[in-house]
Design goal:
Elements: H1 8-15, H2 20-24, H3 32-40, E1 43-50, E2 53-60, E3 67-70, E4 73-77, H4 86-93, E5 96-102, E6 109-119, H5 122-126, E7 138-149, H6 152-157, H7 174-181, H8 189-201
Antiparallel strand pairs: 1-2, 1-5, 3-4, 4-7, 5-6, 6-7
Length: 204
Amino acid sequence: MSQPITDLAALEALYGAPAAPSLAKECDRLTPGYRTLIETSPFFVLATSGPDGLDASPRGDSPGFIAVADDKTLLLPDRRGNNRIDSLRNILHDPRVALLFLIPGVNETLRVNGRAVIDGDPALCGRFAVDGKAPKSVLVVTIDAVFFQCARAVLRARLWDPAAQVARASLPSTGALLAEASAGQEGGDAYDRSLNERIPKTLY
């Protein structure tokens, strides 16, 4: 029998009070330790909200690709992608963003909530050029809250455990997924062959 929880009092009664450390770890700016985590991270997920709903987009590059301008400001290069620009469209509508940073081999994650501005200044974008190729824009994020997330989720997932890794060949290929979703209009074996050649050449 379903038992929907529809009010805050019932929810809080079910879960109880948060542990003191879970509240104490939240800051409105980067501590030196939080800064180190961000500068070590090669990957984060960017969550945004827009008129058509929510979006969560993976972002990654070599550690240090996220620049810390000061203890309240992050600079995030918007690397080359598929030009859907769902996240950027959302930010134009609602500047609030949430970031989840991961570091390979580290079970704790880092969460940042803030507000983003899309900056297309050529000089700023040029600071993030790789192989002479600059991003088209940089997200300037003003931090409202930052805190680390404990290790439970990553440990339960065995995310960094080599024994838990899945062979990519055991799953549908990108071309197969695209063909299935588009009723055969896109994708297929030819798409897989071209993608394997194209991606390494179009990272930046």
